[in-house]
Amino acid sequence: MSDQLIIFDTTLRDGEQSPGASMTRDEKLRIARQLERLRVDVIEAGFAASSNGDFEAVKSIADHIKDSTVCSLARANDRDISRAAEALRGAPRSRIHTFIATSELHMEKKLRMTRDQVFEQAKQAVRFARNLVGDIEFSPEDGYRSDPDFLCRVLEAVIAEGATTINIPDTVGYAVPELYGEFIKNLRERVPNSDKAIWSVHCHNDLGMAVANSLAGVKIGGARQIECTINGLGERAGNCSLEEVVMAVRTRKDYFGLTLGIDASQIVPASRMVSQTTGFVVQPNKAVVGANAFAHASGIHQDGVLKARDTYEIMRAEDVGWSANKIVLGKLSGRNAFKQRLQELGIDLESESEVNAAFARFKDLADRKSDIFDEDIIALVSDESVTSEQEHYRLLALSQHSETGERPQASVVFTAGEVEHKASSDGNGPVDASLKAIESRLNSGAELLLYSVNAITSGSTESQGEVTVRLQHGGRVVNGVGADPDIVVASAKAYLSALNKLHSNLERVAAQG
Ligand code: KIV
Ligand code: ZN
Which of 367, 376, 434, 464 is least surrounded by Cβ atoms within 10 Å, i.e. has the fewest? Predict the structure, then answer.
């Protein structure tokens, strides 16, 4: 059996299914480029048939990504599969990932189909897909809770039809490591043609065991592909976290004995990019990518690390891409230096006008903040005003007044399409007053689900504040992110960015529909 472990990243598909994590086409392409730099083997770029927006995102990723295989999810029907194949046409290496539920519960209650119908549909879907693309992955959804006898029958049939990867999802995060590992091992032993496919694990984190289950699927079960997401992003409690699973296999090569193609130094930049794009903050004590993951606070630990690093460290921070906040640019930096830094960060703005807009924002920021870090640059290009993306609402100016014992007041000037609005309000605090001022004009009807502020770079009050706002309206949940040295301005930007996402009305078909 090969000792090569395939890393299949599904941040842009399963990760994006997380409420509020939906991304625009350009955001997805930016993340896909970072995943390519990270050297993931397969990028699941989306679910092409779910909406025009997702189709365009998969297509754009397929057209630009050269080194990783680009994959689209598709339900087990001809329309979804054709749509996936069409979106993937430009990719040098492409994969269709088709799925249908196989557990009694899902077949009976959700699909309202018999076992025989599911069996036939799975076979037919793989046969159809195989005529369009050579690389086909099949997933029996809720596979871990399916009857193993039925599962073996389906899997044997889809491999015979040409499925090249068999993925066993623990869709609801119910598995425990040993049992999941044994489950995969058992299937591989019982399916007569199992050696014709690569076996894959796909674990959700509802019981906090997605990484452990995935590793057991590899170690005990003999799987050679792990499906995972950056920062463990994903539905409910998320998916198996890429950074954790990769660093476990790398750090414990003595135990796993597996080879990975990943460039680990790109892990932290990827984590930051996903967090800044989606507004899903990384908890400080998160393994590998949390702000405290390599911080030694206790005197005993600090003393030990200074004497011999490996007393308390099993990985090196720089190996996963942590660098101390480095001043990269400042007020005197020119357009060329800025453009070069963008390139080094792997940020490809599409047109010269986008570079110019980003540079203008950089100059504006450098006037107010002496040291500009990589994180500031990433936040700056995430701002919709520098990309070509549709921006209906846009902040033009904000002023606020707060004083001890007085009720804060704010005035906001913003555009909605072609119309300029000026509005004022008071509020409990300056942020509250600013958002109320915006709402006094828009009456959006959106419900605020989350508001959070973080410093983009640590160690200084000079840092930009990054604000995430989560809004819900008409059954849709979106996150808006805004950054500025003034957190009231950042809040207004984040609020308008969330309203922009609601306004763009990217309707999505429920992925598990
Ligand atoms: O969790 C799941 O079952 C999935 C499948 C579509 C692979 O994401
Ligand atoms: Zn999933």
Answer: 367
- How would residue 210 be classed by pLDDT, with cut points 50, 70 and 90? very high
- From the alpha carbon of 227, which atom of ligand 1 is closest? 7
Count: domains in the chain:
3
Given this model, what pLDDT does residue 508 score? 39
Q: Closest ligand 1 atom to the C-alpha of 172?
A: 1
495, 480 contact by CB (below 8 A): yes
- Nearest CA residue ID for atom 8, ligand 1: 14
pLDDT number for residue 512 = 37
For the stretch 38-51, pLDDT in tens is 999 999 999 999 99
pLDDT for 238-254, tens place per residue?
999 999 999 999 999 99
- Mapping DSSP to helix (H, G, I), strand (E, B) and coil, where does residue 15 land? helix
**Structure-token pair, residue 158:** 């889809």
Taking the CB of residue 2, how many other CB atoms lie within 10 A of it?
Answer: 9
Q: 141 alpha carbon to ligand 1 midpoint, in Å? A: 6
Is 512 contained in some domain? no
Q: Ligand 1 center to residue 18 CA distance, Å? A: 13
- Same domain, yes or no, for 105 and 191? yes
Whose tokens are 């003595």? That residue is 254
- Taking CB atoms and a 6 Å cutoff, what residues make up the pocket around ligand 1? 14, 99, 139, 141, 169, 171, 202, 204
